[in-house]
Amino acid sequence: AVVVACQGDENGNDNGSQPQSPGVICKVIIETALLTDPEKVIACYLAKAAGADFVKTSTGFSTGGATVQDVALMRAVVGNDSGVGVKASGGVRSLQDAQAMIGAGATRIGASSGVKIAWAEHNGGGNDNSSNKNPAATPSSDGY
Fold this sequence. Notes:
The radius of gyration is 17 Å and the shape is globular. A five-stranded mixed beta sheet has the order 1-2-3-4-5, covered by helices on one side. 30% of the residues lie in helices and 16% in strands. The chain is built from four helices and five strands. It has 144 residues and is an alpha/beta fold. α3 links the parallel β4 (85-89) and β5. It has helices spanning 37-49, 68-78, 95-104, 114-122; strands at 2-7, 25-30, 54-56, 85-89, 108-110.
């Protein structure tokens, strides 16, 4: 369960979606919830060898998302100085979750709770029940 996603250059060209193409950022999404640790190691090793820019824990559509253990394993395989990032995606819902993933080696966080996490950090690490909420981040009654 590995997906390769390459984003094109600033002109929208995907350059054949090859990891080594100039201007293309290539992410290899490894559905960590569906793989054994040895399979995760192989997937990360192959992604790094192929020239991927990032390995990512999940698409968000599977049975589970990022775990601290998976992020740490992925970071250990791709290394700290390789230029390969680790994106923790899926299940990151709080500032504490994000901090744990970063502590385990994540260089990017994918979270639908990004505004909540940012406001928790802004409010000194408090939870989302803080009295200093951003009204723009609160859903309005008209759905916008």
